[in-house]
Every structure is written in C-alpha cells, then in structure tokens.
Amino acid sequence: MKRSNNQLGGTAALYCRLSRDDNMDSESNSITNQKRLLEKVAKEKGYTDTEIFIDDGVTGTTLERPGFQRMIKAIEAGYISTVIVKDLSRLGRDYLSVGHYTEKFFPEHDIRFIAISDCVDTDEGENDFAPFKNIMNEWYAKDISKKRRIVNKLKGNAGEPLSPPPYGYIKDPDNPKRWIVDEEAARVVKRIYEMTLNGKGTTQIAKALEEDGVLAPSAYYQSKGTPRGGKKKTDLTYWRSSAIYKILRMQEYCGDVINFKTYSKSYKLKKRITNEPENMMVFKDVHEPIIDRATFEKVMLTHGTRKKLPKKEKARSIFSGKLKCVDCGSNLNYHFNQRNPEITYFSCSNNNAGRGCPTTHYIREDFLNSVLLQEIRRLMEFAEQYEDDFLKQIMGHSMQTVERERAFRQKELDSLLARDKELDTIFERLYEDNVSGKLTDERFAKMSSKYESEQGELAKRIKVTKRIIKTEQSQSTDVDIFVKTVRRYTDVDELTPRMLSELISHIEVYHAEKGSHGEKYQQIRIHYNCIGAFDVPTLDGVPEVDVTIEIRQGVTLCVA
C-alpha cells in the first residue's frame, strides 16, 4: 500500500549532476540535456510540480554536494515524493552510499525513484541489476582516478607543474606549462621577505599590508578574473598570518617547480596529506625567481621560531626565537620585570613550566646585547685583519661540524636499527615459547603488545633519523654566503634584526655561576649560520670580550 504523499501530482525532484568524470560523454551528460530529458519524463509520468536540483562540476565519488544535500533535506521535510535522475551514476559513483539511499533511505521516506537510462522505477518493482550497475559506476570512477594519477605522475616526473602558479606568478599565455612573474604581486612577495629579514613576524607583516590597502591573494585573483577555489572575500585587504607563513615557505619563489607535495590515500578521500620530502620531485631554476636562493635560505633558517611576548610588552626582542637552553634544548621565553618593565630578560621555558629543567638559565637582554655585539665585532676584526686564517679556519671548522653531526646521526641510526633487529628476535622467541606452552596466551599478548609499541616508536624514529641524514648529505655548507655576509658588516655599532637573521642560527645560554666574591659569571655559545659554533681565536688586534653589569645592589654579572 502506497502512502498518500507518493501519489501522482506530488512534487518530483529532478536531480542533475556533471563533473570531469563525464568528459567522454559531455554532450549527452550536459546539464541542459539532463534537464530537458528529466522534464520530459516527469511530464510523461504525470508530474506537473517539479523542482530541479543541480550539482555542476562536482564529482560523484562524494555525496557532500550542495544540490544533492538540499534535495535530501527537502525529502526529510516531506516536500518530495519522487526522485528522477538520468542514470544511477548521476546519483553517485560510491556504490555503498548510493545503495544506502536507493535501498534504505528512499523506501523509508516512501520515495519513488526513477533512473531513466538504467530502466529503474521502484513503482514497477525492484531492478535486480541496479546494485551491479552501482558497482560498475564506482569502478568507472576508480578507473578514471587511476588514469589521472598515471598521467599526473608522468607530467610531474617530466617537470611540468601540477599545481596552479602561486601568488606572484601567472601562467605564460604562450605556454600554459610555464610560469612567468606577475610583477604587481611579486612586489608584495619581495616586501614580505624583506620585512621578515628585518625582524617582523607574520602577524606584524599581515597588519602592515592590510593598513596599506594591499589586496589579499584571493581578492587579488578576483580582481584579475583568475579562477581560484574557495569563498569570495568581502574584506579584500585582510591578510591572514597563515598566508604570510605559506609565502615564506614557498621554494617555488626561487624559480623551482616542486611536484607531489601532497597526496590522497584514496580517490574517495579528498583530504590532501603532506608528502615525505624524499617522495617529492624538485626541478630547480625552471622559471624566473622572485626571491634569490640565499635570501630564501636565510628566512628558512630563522622563520617560525619566535615566541609571542607578554601582552603588556609591545616591543619585540630581536633575540626572540634565537636563544636555547644548553641543558634541555628548549627555547628561552622573553619576559619583563613586573616592578621595573625597563628590565627585560629571558628564561628557560621548560623550567618555567616545571618540565624537568633544573635551572632558569636567566639572562638579561642588555647583558646579552653587549656580549653579542662584542663577539660579532671580534669576528669582524678577525675576518678583516687575518683574512687567510679566517677563511681557512671557517672552512675547516664547517667541514668538521658537518662530519661530527653526520657521525652522531649515523651512530644514533645504527643503535635504533640494532634495537629493532633485537626486538624481531625477541618476538620469535616469545612466539616459540607460546606455541610450546612455556608462555601462556595472556602473558604472550601482554608482552608482545609492549614490544610492538616499542617497535612502532622505533620505526618512527628510524624514519625521521634517515630523513635527517639524507637532508644533511644533500645540503652543501655554503661558506661563501657566510663569508660575504661577514664582510658586509665591517663596522658594527649596534645589533639589528637583519644582522642576527643573516649571521646567527641560535645562541646557547648557560646558567649563571656564582664567583668567589659575590659576582656572577655567565657563558653563552653562539652558533653561526652555515658553520655552527665557532670561537674566535685570541690574536693581536682582536679585542677580548669584557662585559660587566650591576644586576642589583652589590651583585655584578660578568661574561664567563
């Protein structure tokens, strides 16, 4: 017995869908032709009240389509009595989801379902072939996805860009496979890198661009009529700090093409997952660079490590993100004295949070500034007065640093692999003892679970360590860049954010030690970009570091 809402004269939903999957049959599957066919059949079936739902350009492998979801809500609200589609593939190409609607959802809501080309009409009885047709529709989508992956792999391995050009580039009108510089947007990109080298954070840069009325990337594309995904912006000059961060991480600005940066686990899953670096394909110097490679590498060395300051302190320390605790390796957080805000200092974040570091590694900013300024002056004097010795020591020290780091990583990897092999042996013995009855099933399950967990963690660490070793082997220590940078700062009167960014990787801070007469001594160790930690030799004409400040009445702090 049919319910009253499924009588002729009820509202029929005419559902149309078109996507790239249908390119081979684009004429017959066009939205216009689908609408014409559905309206004709609806009229023949006696339906005078129809409502059209359309999804144009949406794949059938997902049911999260705007038009489809609106139709489902209308059905649940009781407005629809019949659903008509051209064929089952218009409903979708996921046989489980389509089967849910045709076998369960539609019958539960007393919906007459008609798929014209597949001869399905639930008022005329069940079509036993429909489930097989749904499986074939999904197979078609899977086959199309497989072919696209193969084509994309061939294109990507040949160096053809697989993604649209990033902000700052456009496709060459004469060759769509090539990118050319978009001068207007490129000026903004250069400005972002320049501000970063001058010590500005992503939030500060975003605010400055907004205040100057610079169009955000999505709004810029809108203004140029360039089709890009995402919602249309209403606040055209609002820049997100995440957009700045993304621009600062784009190696494409050096003139490179990077393919296979992301992947999906299945054609059914639309989420993109970041690929491992070894699985990406990098083609260098393919198009004209916007940012020179040396500048990009400097930004990569320093960007993203700065910490936010307390809300009351508006000024930003040029040392934020550069200071590391020598004992636990964590960053040192920036603070100011509550009673005297003019006194600013850093202390270990792990000690502050009670996470195991035993001492604060407290260091005042004014003391740090004086010590670092004198150390950099010593480096400049050494480079100027003893140029040959400087070059020889820098190059030798750099090679030693790389070799020492490589040996340490290799030793760590050997240890991890040995433990992994040892666990395999333990598993074999446990299994044999369990089979022979020496070990109960309960005990075997408990012990094997413990070792499986350890081996899982080992696998992650082995993977990370191998990646680090590979990266270090592929990276050349660019001493020339460092030497040129040192020579550019021949007369240093004060430290600047750009100077720190170009010269220094990070600074290790030791906890101050008490002297015999009440004074305190503090040591820092500077790690320079490209060469690591380096102690300037004591020679004639190279001044010693001599810094002493009074931190409170009767107590002085000296450099160790």
SSE blueprint:
Layout: E1 11-18, H1 26-29, H2 31-44, E2 49-56, H3 66-76, E3 82-85, H4 88-91, H5 95-108, E4 112-115, E5 120-121, H6 130-157, E6 169-172, E7 175-181, H7 183-197, H8 202-211, H9 217-224, H10 241-248, E8 257-259, E9 262-263, E10 273-274, E11 281-283, H11 293-302, E12 323-325, E13 332-336, E14 344-348, H12 349-352, E15 363-364, H13 365-385, H14 387-436, H15 441-474, H16 479-488, H17 497-503, E16 504-509, E17 513-514, E18 520-522, E19 524-528, E20 532-533, E21 548-552, E22 555-559
Parallel strand pairs: 1-2, 1-3, 3-4, 12-16, 18-22
Antiparallel strand pairs: 4-5, 6-7, 8-11, 9-10, 13-14, 14-15, 16-19, 17-18, 19-20, 21-22
Helix pairs in contact: 5-6, 8-10, 13-14, 14-15
Give a structural overview.
The chain has 560 residues and is an alpha/beta fold. Helices cover 45% and strands 16% of the residues. It contains 17 helices and 22 strands. The termini are far apart.
Number of strands: 22
Shape: extended
Strand order of the largest sheet: 2-1-3-4-5
| The named CATH superfamily of the domain at 4-149 | Resolvase, N-terminal catalytic domain
- Looking at the structure, the CATH topology of the domain at 4-149 is Rossmann fold
Radius of gyration: 33 Å
What are the segments in which pLDDT stays under 50 over at least 5 consecutive residues? 1-7, 304-314
Structural class: alpha/beta
How many angstroms separate the termini?
95 Å
- Named at the architecture level, the CATH assignment of the domain at 4-149 is 3-Layer(aba) Sandwich
Helix content: 40-55%
Q: What value does the average pLDDT take?
A: 80
Largest sheet, in brief, is: 5 strands, mixed
- The helix count comes to 17
Query: Oligomeric status of the shown chains?
Result: single chain
CATH class of the domain at 4-149: Alpha Beta
